[in-house]
Specification:
- The chain has helices spanning 4-7, 15-22, 47-58; strands spanning 8-11, 36-41, 70-78, 82-86, 90-93, 97-104.
- The protein has 115 residues and is of the alpha+beta class.
- The protein has one domain (4-104): RRM (RNA recognition motif) domain (Alpha-Beta Plaits, 2-Layer Sandwich).
- The mean pLDDT is 90.
């Protein structure tokens, strides 16, 4: 079994991912907002492992209403750029990465996303 912190590597912070973390701006009721968070994950991790690792990290030491529930996990592989110059002008390749978009239950949010 892999460690939860080796599966979820780091948050993937972009303008679009921060906007998704605020939820749909058309919904005015705070309890109906469904937030999505983006993370870089291990290339070999599947959706079930990502869900379990995310819940292990963010639910450690919490009980009751503070528990985070994951509704869905979507993954995509970001291909590394080819022909990048590395070191002394030699061509090389950037590594491939895997991104996971994690959707939480309605009304739930992460307080330390991207910190």
């Amino acid at each position: 079994m892999k460690n939860a912190h080796s599966i979820i590597i780091q948050p993937h912070i972009t303008e679009k991912s921060v906007a998704m973390s605020y939820g749909d701006p058309m919904i005015t009721n705070e309890d109906d907002i469904q937030r999505k968070y983006t993370f870089l994950v291990d290339l070999k991790a599947n959706k079930i492992e990502i869900r379990k690792a995310f819940e292990d990290i963010y639910n450690s030491g919490k009980k009751g209403d503070d528990v985070v529930n994951v509704v869905s996990v979507r993954t995509s592989i970001l291909l590394g750029k080819k022909g990048r110059r590395m070191g002394a002008g030699r061509p090389g390749n950037k590594p491939n990465r895997k991104k996971a978009v994690i959707t939480l239950a309605k009304g739930q949010a992460l307080e330390d996303y991207g910190v």
